[in-house]
From TrEMBL:
Residues 24-140 form the Response regulatory domain. This is Response regulator transcription factor. PROSITE patterns: HTH_LUXR_1, HTH_LUXR_2, RESPONSE_REGULATORY. The keyword Transcription regulation applies. The modification 4-aspartylphosphate is found at D75. Residues 170-235 form the HTH luxR-type domain. GO terms for biological process: phosphorelay signal transduction system; regulation of DNA-templated transcription. The keyword Transcription applies. Keywords: DNA-binding, Phosphoprotein, Transcription, Transcription regulation. GO terms for molecular function: DNA binding. It comes from Microlunatus elymi. It comes from the Bacteria. Residues 1-23 are annotated as: Disordered.
Length: 238
């Protein structure tokens, strides 16, 4: 996902019943240049269909019934109705819609508020295009994704006990893992999705998924972000 808040383990989307249907994406941002850039980038992907744009949260909510998006890219700082409140309304009233917070800012309050509101992922707008597309696919497929800085923010808000004790507990848990399991855990902490881990470690994607499931069981955790936080707590990454 953990301390103050955890992102959800991933809500199902309408695309799961028909994998051949492109994922319907709604872009919500008050900046027309950002909307245009995202539309051009995502519209060129065969598995994505950009079905509409909204200039603020109120505009977004008004279009949900007509556009029926599977996934929403949600700017957080907007006039009229901001992305945090909009995300909260969507996750409460439309639980099958996946929401990814996409913002220029990653302050502690912003990260925690977005995840608490129910966002399935938190990414920065300056994420490289290829990485952004890959991350959107991962979230769509049920993998909660956070930018590395957002993971660090969550780490800073985990229980305020002694850092040394926290590090040693995390290292003791990770010491029970095999070498390959630890490699997968560290790749998750680095923000890699399953396909990227597979390429990095020369494994198949199904094998990576098996390792992730095994890590969750062995570490007694609920989701990938908790794995990342455990690795961060152990101070095994820069």
């Amino acid at each position: 996902m953990v301390g103050v808040t955890e992102p959800p383990a991933g809500r199902s989307t309408g695309t799961e019943s028909d994998p051949s249907r492109p994922t319907r994406i709604l872009i919500v941002d008050d900046d027309p240049i950002v909307r245009s850039a995202l539309g051009l980038m995502l519209g060129g992907q065969p598995d994505f269909s950009v079905v509409g744009e909204a200039i603020n949260g109120r505009d977004c909510l008004a279009q949900l019934g007509t556009l029926q998006p599977d996934l929403i890219l949600m700017d957080l700082r907007m006039p009229v109705l901001d992305g945090i409140r909009t995300t909260r309304e969507i996750t409460a009233g439309h639980p099958t819609i996946t929401v990814i917070a996409l913002t220029t800012f990653d302050t502690d309050d912003m990260v925690l508020a977005a995840l608490s509101a129910g966002a399935d992922g938190f990414l920065l707008k300056d994420t490289p295009p290829a990485k952004l597309v890959s991350a959107i696919r991962a979230v769509r497929d049920g993998e909660p994704i956070l930018s590395p800085s957002a993971v660090r923010t969550l780490l800073h808000h985990v229980q305020a006990d002694d850092r040394t004790e926290r590090r040693e507990r995390a290292r003791a848990r990770l010491a029970e893992l095999s070498e390959r399991e630890l490699e997968v855990a560290m790749a998750i902490a680095d923000g890699a999705n399953n396909a990227e881990i597979a390429g990095r470690l020369q494994l198949s994607v199904p094998t990576v998924k098996t390792y992730v499931s095994r890590l969750l069981d062995r570490l007694e955790l609920n989701n990938r972000v908790q794995i990342a936080i455990c690795v961060q707590q152990a101070e095994l990454t820069p």
